[in-house]
């Protein structure tokens, strides 16, 4: 009879038992070590990261979690939750229209008034409907003036003064806004290298003229676009170097005197319907008047979906301004409004490490940490109210970009400025949030040495951004694979 040694017997027994205890699927992501991605990218001093299991509130992985960095447009996640908490998802902005006088035989012997309350979504098409309302209600002529009341909110000419003037994402803000405070610049080359240059308040179906904003091609050197504003007559003058124009094209340019711009468009839309108004003036609405017509925006929930998906700076700032006005009657500037949101956020997450100087993230002066966003993302109200509004983030794998990995999806918000990149959100399983994450990267020294107010593309900024984005994609991919591996093993 064949005899087996005791040693061989024990080895055979161990192998047999191991076949039952060891899972058939490899488990390379049982323990996350995403710091290796950051280190291999040489971003050790430039990245703050964390990932948390939302089922247990335990940290899965972290790196420089307390490092304070600017987070760019990820700030809009904070602003969105701030608006949800303070205004409610059913909140609507309004713009009121008043008649002060008597209408007889098609003539209004008196004045028209507009009073704004900060609606950041008002469009030329909306104003065209109001102009049509006055026409259909028997007004063909106004003997007085068209007055506007913009006293509800302060008037700002910029979100961030250090940006180049031509960036449409950095316009003015007021109690009366229009077309996200942008104007459409269109050009077409004629003979002898001359150009037709057109500026218009373009809507989908309506189009308004704005005579106080003008553009020329007299800029021969220096920055491609030059800009000048005249406070006395509210004129805004643009000068562009024609070498960049080509045969034809268009782009949006920011507007600075936004309330005046909005009312000029309304005056022109009235004129297009044959309703003649003499002049535009600025005056408070008399207390004895009641609105004859109001325009209401869509609900806040819809506004926030649009704002987060397309990263709308101007809308975010208008929302923050509106809330600050409700919290504090005396409101002067954007920094003051940002501090109001900072106080709310610090109280909301019980931490003092974040600072917001505005509501859109268009500044390198604001900062937060991955640790603070951990406390933010685990909030039940954030997961319930904010998560459904976030954008679907693609997952980058070895086989390309995917919307999902089976039943695993990622929803969040990204933010980008020169030498600044942020991403935060949730990894979801069957649409339920499983992991909350924040990845913030910035090189403030490189940003300081390559100022964005002198160049549209500062030296090295594109290469740096590519490294930051690739790092971010690798981290998100590994978080998804971590869930996928655990799901296969369960």
Helix content, binned percent: 25-40%
Structural class: alpha+beta
Radius of gyration: 28 Å
CATH class division of the largest domain: Alpha Beta
Number of strands: 22
Low-confidence stretches: 6-29
The average pLDDT score comes to 91
Number of domains: 2
The CATH homologous superfamily of the largest domain is termed DD-peptidase/beta-lactamase superfamily
The CATH architecture of the largest domain comes to 3-Layer(aba) Sandwich
| β-strand amount | 25-35%
Looking at CATH, which topology of the largest domain would you report?
A: Beta-lactamase
Oligomeric form of this entry?
A: single chain
Question: Could you characterize the architecture of this molecule?
Answer:
The protein is α+β, with helices and mostly antiparallel strands. The protein has two domains: 35-90 and 298-489, DD-peptidase/beta-lactamase superfamily (Beta-lactamase); 94-296, D-tyrosyl-trna(Tyr) Deacylase, Chain: A (3-Layer(bba) Sandwich), CATH 3.50.80.20. It contains twelve helices and 22 strands. The protein has helices at 6-21, 35-40, 75-87, 124-136, 258-272, 300-310, 313-327, 334-349, 370-377, 380-386, 444-449, 461-489; strands spanning 47-53, 58-63, 94-104, 107-116, 141-142, 146-149, 182-189, 195-202, 207-209, 213-216, 225-230, 235-240, 248-254, 276-277, 280-282, 293-296, 391-393, 395-397, 400-402, 408-417, 420-429, 432-442. Strands 3, 4, 5, 6, 14, 15 and 16 form a seven-stranded mixed β-sheet that branches. A six-stranded antiparallel β-sheet has the order 2-1-22-21-20-17, with helices on both faces. Strands 9-8-7-13 form a four-stranded antiparallel β-sheet. A hairpin with a 2-residue loop joins β3 (94-104) and β4. α3 (75-87) packs antiparallel against α6 (300-310). The longest helix is centred in the C-terminal third of the chain and has 29 residues, at 461-489.
């Amino acid at each position: 009879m064949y005899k087996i040694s005791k040693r061989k017997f024990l080895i055979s027994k161990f192998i047999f038992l191991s076949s039952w205890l060891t899972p058939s699927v490899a488990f390379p992501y049982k323990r996350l070590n995403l710091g290796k991605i950051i280190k291999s990218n040489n971003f050790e001093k430039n990245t703050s990261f964390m990932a948390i299991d939302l089922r247990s509130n335990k940290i899965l992985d972290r790196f420089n979690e307390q490092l304070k960095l600017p987070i760019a447009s990820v700030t809009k996640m904070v602003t969105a939750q701030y608006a949800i908490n303070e205004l409610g998802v059913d909140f609507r902005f309004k713009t009121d229209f008043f008649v002060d006088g008597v209408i007889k035989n098609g003539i209004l012997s008196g004045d028209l008034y507009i009073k704004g309350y900060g609606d950041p979504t008002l469009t030329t098409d909306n104003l065209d409907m109001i102009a049509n309302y006055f026409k259909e209600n028997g007004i063909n002529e106004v003997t007085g003036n068209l007055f506007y009341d913009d006293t509800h909110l302060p008037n700002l000419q910029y979100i961030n003064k250090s940006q180049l003037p031509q960036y449409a994402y950095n316009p003015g803000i007021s109690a009366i806004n229009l077309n996200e405070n942008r104007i459409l610049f269109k050009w077409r080359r004629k003979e002898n290298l001359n150009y037709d240059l057109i500026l218009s308040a373009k809507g989908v179906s309506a189009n308004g003229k704005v005579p106080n904003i003008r553009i020329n091609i007299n800029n021969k050197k220096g920055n491609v676009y030059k800009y000048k504003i005249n406070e006395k007559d509210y004129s805004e003058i643009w000068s562009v170097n024609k070498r960049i124009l080509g045969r034809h094209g268009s782009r949006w340019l920011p507007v600075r005197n936004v309330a005046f711009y909005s009312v000029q468009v309304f005056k022109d839309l009235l004129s297009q319907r044959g309703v003649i108004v003499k002049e535009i003036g600025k005056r408070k609405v008399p207390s004895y008047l009641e609105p004859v017509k109001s325009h209401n925006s869509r609900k806040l929930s819809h506004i926030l979906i649009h704002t987060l998906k397309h990263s709308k700076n101007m809308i975010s700032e208008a929302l923050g301004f509106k809330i600050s006005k409700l919290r504090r009657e005396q409101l002067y500037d954007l920094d003051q409004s940002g501090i109001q949101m900072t106080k709310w956020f610090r109280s909301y997450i019980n931490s003092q490490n974040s600072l917001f100087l505005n509501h859109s993230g268009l500044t390198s002066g604001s900062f937060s940490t991955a640790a603070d966003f951990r406390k933010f993302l685990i909030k039940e109200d954030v997961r319930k109210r904010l998560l459904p509004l976030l954008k679907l983030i693609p997952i980058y794998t070895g086989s390309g970009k995917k919307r999902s990995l089976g039943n695993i999806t990622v929803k969040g918000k990204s933010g980008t400025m020169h030498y600044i990149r942020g991403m935060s959100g949730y990894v979801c399983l069957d649409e339920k949030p499983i992991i909350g994450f924040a990845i913030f990267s910035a090189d403030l020294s490189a940003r300081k040495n390559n100022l964005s107010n002198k160049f549209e593309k500062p030296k090295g900024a594109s290469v740096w951004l590519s490294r930051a984005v690739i790092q971010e994609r690798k981290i998100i991919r590994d978080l998804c694979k971590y869930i996928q591996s655990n799901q296969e093993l369960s």
